[in-house]
Amino acid sequence: MWKSNCFKEFIKYSSTNVLGTIGLSCYILADTFFVSKGLGTNGLAALNLSVPIYSFINGIGLMIGMGAGTKYAIHINQGDNYTNKIFANAIYFASFFACIFIVIGIFFSDSVVTYLGADKNISSMTQTYVRVILLFSPAFLLNNVMLCFIRNDKAPQLSMSAMIGGSLSNVILDYIFIFPCKMGIFGAVFATGLAAIISILILLSHFTPKKITSVFHRARLAKYY
Length: 225
Fold this sequence. Notes:
Layout (H helix, E strand, L loop, with lengths): L1 H77 L4 H25 L1 H8 L6 H13 L1 H16 L3 H23 L5 H20 L10 H9 L3
Helix pairs in contact: 1-2, 1-4, 1-5, 1-6, 2-4, 2-5, 2-8, 3-4, 4-7, 5-6, 5-7, 6-7
């Protein structure tokens, strides 16, 4: 019986995570398609040069979220009160990196673009994408941390829904901003930033008395002290 329950839990968590990741992959494909159709080769080149920055921010968020989320799951099953400190430290750590990324976006985005190798034809578009991505870094980091913690707080379906919801909203907003609104490369990156915020809004539905565990509730409040 124990092995059967363990296998069901494994399937439940792994399948929802895989589906959410597939949704994220579809969004990246759609994002590339819309940018290439709406902005041409220069827009696609600017997007490809900027992707490492986006991936780096997401990587930082996932490292914080997965590491702290795993430790959170271990302690919550042990029934101790250490979980509030784990969540608080994850938020503080993510905030620290967010501040660094914002400073880079405001003052050093041109240097980043030069380092990435953008020539004069795509320098302006690349700088716009990089700067906006860096300014949206708090949303990306918080989204990844919340995804990991809420998944480990016995709500993998909600985590999956947030990933897919954010990805689908990005596809829709990409089309609206690039074609009808003609916002150019700014529209593409703005859609990406808004998608992370939409994902966070979906995840916030977990913070209700009926859904949230008592330990996670204390952890959520712990960030204020």
